[in-house]
């Protein structure tokens, strides 16, 4: 028997989800629509965005589903997105930072950032900070960020020069660095918002069978991904903790925690619990984005 879903749980709530055109982002969006949310889907590709919107409306006729197109690999685009959201919505009840990439060869954007660092972390840092006025206007709001157990292999480099060194670059290591950053950012954000009505939590969705590693990828990472594919979980299962953190009444006042399987979990790295490291990351992120 399917679990009961309260179609009024998020009635009157506006929820913005990045990376909502596929994988756990799409499932999260669809299930929050079932709970009555007014969705704002942030997607990079217009065609995939419209397909996702149509699928949600087919599952939930009458749902309110808006689309904002944005390539999160450029901070300038994130600024434009936040400005447009600010113009269109008086408040934002839930922000789900879901979008993520694991690139192949070292890719430096025209703004000078490594692709996974800017997409997985700097965009999260910038968008969340820029949308704080809308989140604060909701009275009680939530920031949910998709991190990963891969954080235990991550490090926070002190400069872009070191992070962008072609001789030392590893796509997997870069991804792990960004996931550690997600957790440190969440911890510092929760600390800074302690006296507000905004909570901030992050999560490990599990090893999910999505398009994170591109089909055309070659090398050891592609091989490892292929070997592990039979043991991966579906996006339906992988989205459950995001859905829980975005909607469950029992976590309305919990902040600064890392979740797995919809429960608080132990962090795998001491670095992820280091307040000094979280503060240092905030300073680095503010310098690299010009925000915060």
TrEMBL record:
InterPro entries: NAD(P)-bd_dom_sf, SDR_fam. Keywords: Oxidoreductase. Signal peptide: none annotated. It comes from the Bacteria. Transmembrane segments: none annotated. CDD domains: retinol-DH_like_SDR_c_like. The keyword Protein biosynthesis does not apply. Pfam families: adh_short. This is SDR family oxidoreductase. It comes from Hymenobacter algoricola.
